Amino acid sequence: MSHSLFLPVSQDDVRSRGWDCLDIIIISGDAYVDHHSFGTAVIGRYLEKHGFKVGVIPQPDWRDPAQFLKLGKPRLFFAVTSGNMDSLVCNRTSANKPRRTDMFSPGGKAGMRPDRSIIVYTSMIKNIAKGVPVVIGGIEASLRRLAHYDYWSNSVRRSILLDSKADILVYGMGEKPVLEIARRLNSGEPDLSGIEGTCIMSKEAPSDAVSLPDFEIVRDDKKAYMKAHKQFVDYFLQRPDYPIFQKYQNRWLVHAPPGPPLTTQEMDEIYALPFKRRPHPMYDSLGGIPAFEAVKFSVTAHRGCFGGCSFCALFFHQGHIIQSRSKESILAELRQYVNDPDFKGTVSDIGGPTANMYGLGCKYHEKGTHCGKSTCLGDSPCPALNRDHSKYMDILASARSIKGISHVFVSSGLRYDIIPESDAYKILTELCTHHISGQLKVAPEHISPNVLRLMNKPGKSKFVQFQNLFSQINKKLKKKQYIIPYFIVSHPGCTEEDMLQLQRFLTGQGFIPDQIQDFLPTPMTTSTCMYYTELDLFTETTIFVPKSVHDRTRQRTILHGYKKSIRHAPDKQKEPAGKRHRSSRKR
């Protein structure tokens, strides 16, 4: 396959296209995979479609200035991203130890990106390409756009826009804001203010904006930090047409309002861009890119999630309004898979952040208004929420009828609490019959009422009802499928007694816990706010937060089912009992 089919990654690629220079150069902490699941490819192809010459420098050696100039200097700007994940989440565990692998690097090799990649990359560019604007974006920039608690330094840090000294920050998925920045700079207009979905620094406070507490205040006062978080959540939910700002000494960070959600037509146009749907050939001899293998023959049907889980950052990145592709767009992509010589007939997933939110939404959002509620779900779905699954089920049925497709699976996880009760048996029967490969991922996360309240998750009874219905249908279909429940350990507010409740529940249900994740405080989430402040966001009362290695180890130990009393358990973590079990299958 000719390298020229990909976005340019070398001067030879640039010259082969007859170009003297590039308009925009994307610097990424990820390897270059030309697939719509990878942000660098989406932004690059989107700008390319609109007439801009775009190149990519993936995973440059941040200690070598020459690596950042291998494509020359761009005519308009450098676009800098850490990649599909925050670089610290990618590089370090919840115990702040280096990870052994990196799924977004060749052969899964760790160490290919620096910690705080955006700051490191931008600093280098500012030193060697003075005067060239730098635009930062992606999830690392998006979730660090305001003052935020940083787990790895155990401190409240400034906006990454200040720390990186970039010219403008793009938050969210970013196609439209980046295009507007390119158009303004291309027309010779240096003013980048007022672009929806961006943040800039200003020497003056905007007159038409709402103020968050100053950085110095939220840095030094935990209650002020919580106040700022609650204020920003409310602002983002309402999606107003005015900016919000935060003062940093004698300057102001101006956070422009988010733009309108993408329409179905706009979604279709983005996912129809000429992606090559594979990693760049330069990685073929390096073991490929592991993250690509997980999505190689999957379909992103929609963006956004209205789940509102306290520990999830998607609300602040993709937003809570579902943006769905059309059925025709999805089926067209599937037909392309059939023509791929590597395709063996199995579609691994049709979904999104939550598979069964396709086509769903709030009647208020459809009218461009907001109901005033802080969550669409919580313990039970809001009455204003459209939960009709017929569009999603129709797409699954149509997909499996395409000649050349043998299996269509749903692997991105289901929210069982949004399935309409009246349709639950029918929907789950169809899923079990056709779309579950043997294991169904669900995320109850816990069973303790207090912990679930803090997580903004539904109660235990919803999971039990779903589990019983799943078992009933499996028995009728004479299948041996399994529910794979995910649980979080050491969430803010979770005590040892809460963990013992979960252990007793799992023991009674016959589950062998394996899908267990230690709570990791990532920037901007509500759970991280509670972790840092040790306050219940909803009542503002003090809560227990397991922060020490001792407390976190004991909670994980309980869930792994040590037979000895927790009171006599040693402080040093042991090999978890039942580690030989590779799944959370119900016995």
UniProtKB/TrEMBL annotation:
Cofactor(s) in the UniProt record: [4Fe-4S] cluster
PROSITE patterns, per the entry: RADICAL_SAM
Ranges annotated as biased composition (Basic and acidic residues): 568-578
Any matching Pfam family: DUF3362
Cofactor notes: Binds 1 [4Fe-4S] cluster. The cluster is coordinated with 3 cysteines and an exchangeable S-adenosyl-L-methionine.
Amino acids binding [4Fe-4S] cluster: C305, C309, C312
Region (Disordered): 562-587
Record key words, sorted: 4Fe-4S, Iron, Iron-sulfur, Metal-binding, S-adenosyl-L-methionine
GO MF term list: 4 iron, 4 sulfur cluster binding; catalytic activity; iron ion binding
Domain of life, per lineage: Bacteria
Cross-referenced InterPro entries: Elp3/MiaA/NifB-like_rSAM, rSAM, rSAM_horseshoe, rSAM_sf, UPF0313, UPF0313_C, UPF0313_N
Domain Radical SAM core as annotated: residue spans: 291-563
Protein family according to the UniProt entry: Belongs to the UPF0313 family.
NCBIfam families hit by this protein: SAM_YgiQ
Identification of the protein by name: YgiQ family radical SAM protein
Species name: Candidatus Auribacter fodinae
